[in-house]
Design brief:
This protein is an alpha/beta fold. Helix content is about 30%, strand content about 15%. The relative contact order is 0.16. Belongs to the peptidase M14 family.
């Protein structure tokens, strides 16, 4: 068994290696609780041993700030921070004193942008919407037609993976009112290789394709959307062939001889009871990344 244990560090995390970075933020508006569950789904999937998650960790670096407004969340505010600021309107010039979380994240993003060995490929800010149904995205408008069309690829792929994501509700705009948002500011700061989105998810329900009935969102449904967001990066970077290589089973260990008696006894006061079939662990199907872990 000891021969199977070794230290492994993915190539993209080794010192000096070129990195493709996906940066995800959430809960900049405290009252938008669904964003936390979507973000939790992304995190749980990425740190799992699912073959797709292992491939994504091998090829991409994910940096996630799951709660940009912790003081507002603690106080139970709906939209603002402790000092009364809507942090998603202060990306242009955040103050280290008044908007410390925003300031820190922005400095980190600028640092990565200036690093020649780092390519910040995606920025996704997760929100919740109070009037629209389903999940959908806001993207940016660019004069460069090729860059503008490339912005549509990820939402289209996500629509194929998530039954509750609506591409028809996804829109691309350059609204002056949103100039101070993360999506708008970073879309103007980063170069043509980067894609910046706001991911919105309904507070209450979604309508899946081919039906007209609204399905109420649950915590699990929000987390499932998060898992499907993570899965979509596999399709975007065309990493599907790598999954089978990652899924090669580990060699089986030598089985020990069964005990000479039918029911091994347990120590303690319950030792007179046999181990039932229900005590065995059931296997989990990892083929579909939308399954819970």
């Amino acid at each position: 068994l000891s021969s199977l244990l070794f230290f492994y560090l993915p190539d993209n995390l080794r010192e000096g290696a070129e990195q493709k970075v996906v940066f995800i933020t959430g809960r900049v508006h405290p009252g938008e609780t669904p964003s936390s569950f979507v973000c939790q789904g992304i995190i749980d999937f990425l740190i799992s041993q699912h073959p797709i998650a292992r491939v994504l960790r091998e090829h991409l670096v994910f940096k996630i700030a799951p709660m940009l407004n912790p003081d507002g969340v603690y106080l139970g505010n709906y939209r603002c921070s402790l000092m009364g600021f809507d942090l998603n309107r202060h990306w242009l010039d955040p103050s280290p004193w008044a908007h410390p979380t925003l300031y820190g994240v922005k400095q980190l993003i600028i640092q990565m942008y200036n690093d020649p060995k780092t390519s910040l490929e995606f920025y996704i800010d997760i929100h919740a919407h109070s009037t629209m149904m389903n999940g959908f995205m806001y993207g940016n408008v660019f004069e460069d037609e090729e860059r503008f069309q490339r912005q549509a690829i990820f939402p289209k792929l996500l629509c194929q993976n998530a039954e509750d994501f609506s591409y028809s509700s996804t829109s691309f705009n350059r609204d002056a009112v949103k100039a101070g948002t993360g999506r708008r500011f970073l879309g103007g700061l980063l170069d043509h290789t980067s894609s910046c989105y706001t991911l919105e998810v309904s507070f209450y329900s979604y309508i899946s394709g081919g039906t007209t009935a609204a399905v109420p969102y649950t915590e699990e449904a929000y987390m499932k959307l998060g898992r499907n967001v993570a899965r979509t990066f596999l399709d975007y970077y065309r990493l599907d062939p790598m999954v089978e290589k990652m899924a090669i089973p580990m060699p089986r260990l030598r089985k020990e001889r069964p005990p000479p008696y039918k029911y091994p006894l347990r120590r303690g006061p319950a030792s007179s009871y046999p181990i039932s079939k229900g005590d065995t662990k059931s296997s989990v199907n990892h083929k579909d990344p939308s399954n819970s872990f």
